[in-house]
Specification:
The chain is of the alpha+beta class and 757 residues long. It has 16 helices and 38 strands. It has five domains: 230 residues, Immunoglobulin-like (Sandwich), CATH 2.60.40.3680; 90 residues, Immunoglobulin-like, CATH 2.60.40; 177 residues, Rossmann fold, CATH 3.40.50; 109 residues, no CATH class; 74 residues, no CATH class.
Amino acid sequence: MKKIIMIGLLLPALISSSAHSQGFIIPDNAGTLRLTKFRASIQVQENIAESSLEHEFYNPTRQQVQGVFYFPLPNGAQVTDFSMEAGGQRLQAELLDARDARKIYLDVVRKALDPALLEMVGKNAFKASIFPIPPGQSRTIRLQYSAVLPRDHNLVKLILPLRGELKVEGRVPPQPYPFGGERPVFKHEDAFQKTPFLRSIDIHLKSRQNLGNIYSPSHRIDIHRKNAHEAEISFEESHSDAPMDFVLYYELHNSDMGLQEVVYRPDKTKPGYFALLISPKYEPNAAKILPKDILWVLDVSGSMAGKKINQARTALKQWIQQLNPGDRFNLITFSSQVKMLQPQWVEVKAGSQPALAFIDAIQAKGGTNIHEALLKAFEQAGKSANAMVVFITDGLPTVGVTQEGEILRDLQKVNTGQLRVFTFGLGYDVNTRLLDGIARLTHAFSDYISPDENLEEKVSSFYEKIRYPVLTHLKLDFGGARVEDAYPVFLPDLFRGQQLIVFGRYPTAGKYRVTLSGEAQNQRKQYSHEVNFPAEQHENAFIAPLWASRKIGYLLDQMQLNGENKELRDEIISLSKEYGIVTPYTSYLIQEKRRRSGSLTLVPGRHFNAGFTDDLSRDLATVPGKSTSGIFNAVTGKEAVNFSQQKNALMQASQLASEVPAAGEVQQRRVAEKTFFLNQQNYWQDLSCATDSADIHIKFASEAYFQLLQRFQQLKLYLSVGERVILGFKGKVIKIDEQGVESVRREMWRKWFRSAR
């Protein structure tokens, strides 16, 4: 693939204070500045991006601060405007090529002892002197530039780097202050800490071709498609700890179905990873959307009385009023008895008013006959090719057949494989194994609504997603390619404005024709796309932990269904170790040898996608003598609901979560294919290193340190995590800290890395 052009700005630590920055300022004195607001507005036509960036810096100190503003530019970028609000005066600015910028970055690393700037080496830079910022005041710096985004066939990639860390007293060892005087000290109650922060990103995409898949693996974005050729993407957050680079993929094509692969294979001796993005052409004309039959099955037992039944009534009314022309519906309510609105499907126009009256008359009373309600639903909807069932309950089965195993066996007998049953559990007094089992059996999904959540909002959001079906009963044929561990195992239906992502692995490189087939208008349709599975690909490292998250979620789902067993447990633990993912077995799989006993303790930490709750982690963390089998036996209660929610989040993972550690958690970072954690000695340790005993020990920011970077430029990403690092590289364990060797002779380099050459 072509080299990625970096759009936007890197977020290294602000050099004087190690605070957040996008572009960054090196002050001329011992002051410090805090970035309090960052806004990015990007207009993209085809693959030409016009970026407008706004930085607001605040001076929380008691002295005036001035300095030099640096901004890392993508290759080929053209700055079109630059300004700072300072009495109408114009700033002096200049462009630096990559060679001059590299010298500045490395010099700052030497002086400021902040390795975050290593990520910027190799980029051009924009440099400008800034006017003094008075104490307690803010100044806004604006920068505009244009650049060509790299395009690989139909896929375009946009990156807005947002890296950085907030270094405050107590979180990292103090370092010498490089600009004279002493480094400023900021207490947690200081104004520096209390300064609010806002980051927002708005992207407007426009193309003559169809806009297919639009996907961010890094952030949960809002996508508003205006038509097939235009879309608006937005993201906003109000915290500033260790953000991830903002990454956006979008696809340009002229077909009715977007099919696009993204691949990652850092080691050609091991199977590669792929993400297959699937998105139907946006069709604004509702008349061309498939009609659907939707059946609501609502629990109206006594426990639903009050707020829950009122919210359910409101949600059902809204759904009926939002049905499309050509849709049909029906409604089943159940308590001790089961009632149906009509014996046959109800047409939208003819049946809306009687249905609304039926809903108004609903009363919550009696027991919970889940078994009969489900059988009635299959009897009504099982023969419809376009039917789906939404099942809502807040309790356990108490009337009729109450054993979950018997209920699921009876459903399996009547299930033809066509009907989707989406289950919603209200509160904590639900049988999670039953609700998850119903969704699993019908290739749908389950969800849970906590007591403090609004039922109406949750189910209305779900309905909006499934309102316009495009293609149902999907199948994928990889055209002879060997594909392993592809998830989801069962493909869901496709809806307008939604996309499906399939993660998997491939052992054999080559080009293959992938075919997606599904049903539309009672016809079987096919869409084909040629995928390229390369022998080696070092970009797109995000795919690996997302694939691992989905596989772990699937394995946990199997254990919930069939019970715990050693083989699956060992596989989950192995994946957790390799990819740094939290599971019920490990709050975080960082292995620390106890100094005395030598036994292993697993320390709480952070997961990329769906961190298990603190209560669950404490209860299930694997320590000597602690069993986890209880979680698979629990079917009801808060703990069981939390487990199901987080297991489902793993199974559906498509974004990497923030790296911000919660209180008491071990900090960790994913850099390319490596996971680093902050060990008990305050080293960022490569998780793949079984030992912290070093083969090569080098002093940070020394001559030897920069020689190492010059010899192996790929190390700049790994060493940018901090001043104290332990990593595995080319069969050696390299240790970086303040006590290593400062200079290394040429023959020693050859001795260390002779085998690597």
